[in-house]
From TrEMBL, chain A:
Gene assigned in the entry: nuoI
Self-association state and partner proteins as the record states: NDH-1 is composed of 14 different subunits. Subunits NuoA, H, J, K, L, M, N constitute the membrane sector of the complex.
Membrane topology: Peripheral membrane protein
CC annotations in GO: plasma membrane
Top-level EC class: translocase
Catalytic activity: a quinone + NADH + 5 H(+)(in) = a quinol + NAD(+) + 4 H(+)(out)
Primary localization class, coarse: membrane
Binding site for [4Fe-4S] cluster 1: C69, C72, C75, C124
Protein name: NADH-quinone oxidoreductase subunit I
TrEMBL record, chain B:
Natural source organism: Pelagicoccus enzymogenes
Compartment(s) where it occurs, according to its Swiss-Prot or TrEMBL record: Cell membrane; Membrane
Protein name according to UniProt: NADH-quinone oxidoreductase subunit H
Main subcellular location: membrane
Pfam families for the chain: NADHdh
The keyword Flavoprotein appears for this protein: no
Length: 180, 367
């Protein structure tokens, strides 16, 4: 149902312009001295970031400090603009997590390519890559805009996830028999 | 004229022009601040100076107020790349900004801004040249300002500036008439039969001392004149020549850096002179209130000089504020509306006003 806005014909006073101009002036005058300021002074003040925001993709660790990424390269494969480049690496045999087999040796995300689509987060079987609330990236060179592994972990922090899937795997393997 | 006279006059002129320039740059700041306050923003608040800016509270306060911003703006205008597009008519392109600034600065010559009493008790008016035909000089020169705009628009050799220039000239012609006619009652009142004829601005101010200000008993003239001043200075709601939403930025679309700065300063200088003329013709000039002069308050000597100049500057700033306040309140008129208001409303109104005041002045008892 369309709503028809009735326009009243202008009264004589309104047709005179001047009273209406004065009315407009009072409105702006009130705004000038009693109106609230809505500016967010950016670098010092930041807008609140809503949950589920897709900011810069980052890598996370689990609460024990193990890097969650197992270097399966699914994210590299799925990334539409091919922003991710992973060099898989072995986990040393004397490590506590030797049974995980692999971890990324190098992990670069080119932020000049990334389109913040969130596919990498979606596809990761280990919940190791997350788009978090960081949104302002800048640099003077192209090289600076590529986040390497150290940077990604620094941005990512720890995922408070008490699942510890790989510990269970290890237990199951040591006790013999599969883990489900 | 003696050589020392010329030297003193030159020094006065330099002082007046530099004060005017200072006012211009701070008028730009005021414009930005007022617009941002009206729109719920904060305006320029980051520019700071090394030493003054780091004084504990004052420095921060001044920085937040944007007091140092004009310096940054000025430097930017000086040092940005000055692009002269290849398709322009070089000579006129360079001439245009100069032509729009020079008339504005020239008109200041006849604008009186105060008085003081010298040791002998004589009243000395503070004005660079107290011409007897000051108002004619002022109208004649200030309307030359539009040549800068028209020339800039034409020499730019592109569509939007061209349209801006055309609009500016049409608007100028339409409003000059109403403006001239609307001030006639003021001078009819001034030149009563039997007195020595004068068109001097100083005399206009003096005639309002100890009497009603002209704006109070000639509201019609005042209103028409103010509207015309808005149109003449190309200010919103009459900024046909610029109208950034329709013509990019009108006549100065192709201008950059220092040349654009000249146009910019020219506009504000025009506004300042316009405000001063309104204050002088209708708002009692340097008289503090109707029916009272500074002499009535018992102020004499150099103190009268300080106070009269202060009053004048106060009124000037008040009217500048009004200019800006209107700009951020009223939307721009359409071009045809501007023409209609000019020819079909203001011109007949000003003629009617003239006739009415001819009779009023004829029958009015002179004090
Ligand atoms: S967010 Fe999208 S574009 Fe960016 S790295 Fe992940 S998959 Fe690639
Ligand atoms: S981040 Fe996830 S998807 Fe990408 S390689 Fe590591 S485990 Fe695989």
């Amino acid at each position: 149902m369309p709503i028809v806005v009735k326009r009243k014909p202008l009264t004589f006073l309104e047709k005179l312009y001047i009273p209406e101009i004065v009315r407009g002036l009072t409105v702006t005058f009130r705004r000038m001295f009693f109106g609230e300021t809505v500016t967010l002074e950016y670098p010092e003040q930041r807008p609140p970031i809503p949950a589920g925001y897709r900011g810069v993709p980052t890598l996370v660790r689990d609460p024990e400090g193990r890097e969650k990424c197992v270097s399966c390269q699914l994210c590299e494969f799925v990334c539409p603009p091919k922003a991710i480049r992973i060099t898989p690496g072995e986990i040393p045999a004397d490590s506590d997590y030797a049974h995980v087999e692999k971890a990324p040796k190098e992990f670069d995300i080119d932020m000049l390519r990334c389109i913040y689509c969130g596919m990498c987060q979606e596809v990761c079987p280990e919940e190791a890559i997350w788009l978090q609330n960081q949104y302002s990236m800048s640099g003077y060179t192209r090289g600076e805009m590529v986040n390497n592994k150290a940077k990604l972990y620094e941005l990512g922090g720890t995922l408070p996830d008490q699942h510890f899937k790989w510990n269970k795997k290890k237990e199951a393997a040591e006790n013999g028999g599969g883990h489900h | 004229m003696e050589l020392t006279d010329i030297a003193i006059k030159s020094i006065y002129a330099v002082i007046v022009v530099s004060v005017l320039m200072g006012f211009c740059s701070y008028a730009v700041l005021a414009e930005r601040k007022i617009s941002s306050w009206i729109q719920g923003r904060v305006g320029p608040n980051r520019t700071t100076l090394p030493i003054i800016g780091s004084i504990p509270y004052i420095g921060r306060f001044l920085t937040r107020l944007g007091v140092f911003q004009p310096a940054a703006d000025g430097l930017k205008f000086l040092f940005k790349e000055d692009v002269t597009p290849g398709h322009v008519n070089k000579v006129y392109f360079i001439l245009a900004p100069v032509l729009s600034l020079v008339p504005a600065l020239t008109t200041v010559v006849v604008v009186p801004f105060g008085y003081f009493e010298n040791a002998a008790g004589e009243v000395v008016n503070l004005v660079l040249a107290d011409l007897n035909v000051a108002i004619l000089f002022l109208f004649a020169i200030s309307s030359l300002g539009v040549y800068g705009v028209v020339l800039g628009g034409w020499a730019s050799n592109s569509k939007y500036p061209f349209l801006g220039g055309i609009r500016a000239s049409a608007q100028m012609i339409s409003y000059e008439l109403a403006m001239g006619i609307s001030v006639l009652p003021v001078f009819m009142w001034l030149n009563a039969p039997g007195t020595e004829g004068t068109l001097s601005l100083v005399d206009v101010v003096n005639s309002q001392g100890g009497a009603l200000w002209n704006a109070m008993w000639m509201p019609g003239s005042f209103l028409i004149f103010v509207v015309c001043i808005f149109a003449e200075t190309n200010r919103l709601p009459f900024d046909m020549a610029e109208s950034e939403t329709e013509l990019v930025s009108g006549f100065h679309t192709e201008y950059s850096s220092f040349k654009f700065g000249l146009f910019f300063v020219g506009e504000y200088a025009h506004m300042l002179v316009g405000s001063a003329v309104v204050a002088i013709l209708f708002l009692g000039g340097w008289h503090p209130m109707p029916f009272m002069t500074w002499a009535d308050f018992g102020v004499h000597g150099w103190l009268a000089g300080v106070l009269s100049v202060g009053t004048m500057i106060g009124k000037l700033c008040g009217f500048m504020f009004f200019f800006m306040w209107i700009r951020w309140t009223l939307p721009r008129f359409r071009y045809d509306q501007v023409m209609r208001i000019g020819w079909q409303m203001l011109l007949p109104l000003s003629i009617a006003n003239l006739i009415v005041y001819t009779f009023v002045i004829y029958f009015l008892e002179r004090p």
